[in-house]
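Why do we care about 3D structure at all? Because function follows from shape, and shape follows, mostly, from sequence. That is the central idea of this module. The next example makes it concrete: a single protein chain, its amino acid sequence, and then its structure expressed as tokens.
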Amino acid sequence: MALPVYHYLDIGRLGRGEVVNLFLKDAGIEVEQALYPFDTTWPQQSEILKERGITRTGKVPAVEYKGQILNQHIPILRYFARDLGSYDGETNWDKYVVDAVSDIYIDWRTKWAENLGKNSPEFKEKHAPAYYDLIAKYYSDREGPYLLGDRVTYVDFAIYQSIDNDRRTGTLPPVLPDALVKFKETFEKRPRIAEYIKQNE
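And the structure:
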């Protein structure tokens, strides 16, 4: 049986696709990677992917999985969580909390992408601190270390990537709330994540 195919930009550990990549690593899902240079060739490659039906928007990530093509990084995570019967809340309330935090993350990701290459003081000094303070309130509702306590869910991968991406772009607040520090430290000790980080720092 052919491996699932993961399509993304060749930009290291940045961006939306890396959230999906981390999830796949943790879930033990082996994939074939199709990585595209993010340079002057990308607009043409994007059109090719649209023509092939890999993406309707011309954007990635995209995952070819079990005869389906999955797009949009948070819906991709939700699909895998449902398919695997894991990585989500068990009760309707827990699923709501996971979805709510996902929406907050998406708002952050939009602003983060807009700020790339601009180094806006407003993003670093206003948006990023406000985002982490808000997220920390959700992570503080339970003992942690994950959003739902000791149960990891798909949104934890997104929140971890927001912390990691802000660190890489120099926009991470100098001090994170304790709940997020605890979460980050625990998340990085997950066996498959720890091995991946070791090989791809």
